[in-house]
């Protein structure tokens, strides 16, 4: 049986298929002796990568999804981050309460937006390759103008996902709905990547990044 995405898959690549942009949760004193405070998100990233490997022919030499788990210090960290933003196919911001108050999250968004803007100069009809993920329900979020302009409601992910977000589904015990939403997000990422065909860029394009969450409409 031919997979519905098979006819238009991108060439085999070791570049990250998607960039998972998120805001870290600070560790409480009690949590420091337990699992990582972002373990739920790490699990989501792993599940998403597993689906992407099934849906694409990514070579798997590196994880198909970039997830920064370092402390965000030093030139190597920033260079690795910018390289991933310059080569990934899809930008996946995880909408949480903290996300829009973090400077580097706003800068990551700016970097990917610049890359898309450059491609629009030669291919103006390129689709938007930003695929937001609702970690919490929309009622818990205060979206800045730049995020309000991006579609995040995907009915095929299920009404429970739209009402509760992924974290809400997971914590409330809606395992089937959670898995269905993660699978749907993976399919959306692949579909958007195939439609956008975003070209890589020189990371120097990101030399003077701004926190776009602080900007008005």
Automatic annotation (TrEMBL):
GO terms for biological process: signal transduction. It comes from the Bacteria. InterPro entries: FxsC_N, TIR_dom, Toll_tir_struct_dom_sf. Transmembrane segments: none annotated. Residues 66-136 form the TIR domain. This is TIR domain-containing protein. It comes from Streptomyces jumonjinensis. The lineage of its organism: Bacteria, Bacillati, Actinomycetota, Actinomycetes, Kitasatosporales.
């Amino acid at each position: 049986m031919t997979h519905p995405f098979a006819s238009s898959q991108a060439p085999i690549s070791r570049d990250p298929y998607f960039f998972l942009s998120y805001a870290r949760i600070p560790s409480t004193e009690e949590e420091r002796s337990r699992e990582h405070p972002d373990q739920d998100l790490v699990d989501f990233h792993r599940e998403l990568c597993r689906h992407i490997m099934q849906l694409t022919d990514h070579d798997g030499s590196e994880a198909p999804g970039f997830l920064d788990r370092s402390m965000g210090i030093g030139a190597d960290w920033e260079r690795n981050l910018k390289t991933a933003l310059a080569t990934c196919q899809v930008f996946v911001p995880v909408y949480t309460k903290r996300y829009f108050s973090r400077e580097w999250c706003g800068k990551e968004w700016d970097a990917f937006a610049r890359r898309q803007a450059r491609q629009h100069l030669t291919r103006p009809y390129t689709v938007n390759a930003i695929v937001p993920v609702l970690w919490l329900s929309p009622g818990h979020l205060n979206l800045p103008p730049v995020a309000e302009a991006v579609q995040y409601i995907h009915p095929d992910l299920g009404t429970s996902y739209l009402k509760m977000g992924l974290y809400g589904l997971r914590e409330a015990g809606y395992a089937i709905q959670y898995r269905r939403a993660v699978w749907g997000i993976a399919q959306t990422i692949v579909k958007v990547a195939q439609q956008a065909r975003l070209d890589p860029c020189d990371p120097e394009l990101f030399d003077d990044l701004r926190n776009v969450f602080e900007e008005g409409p």
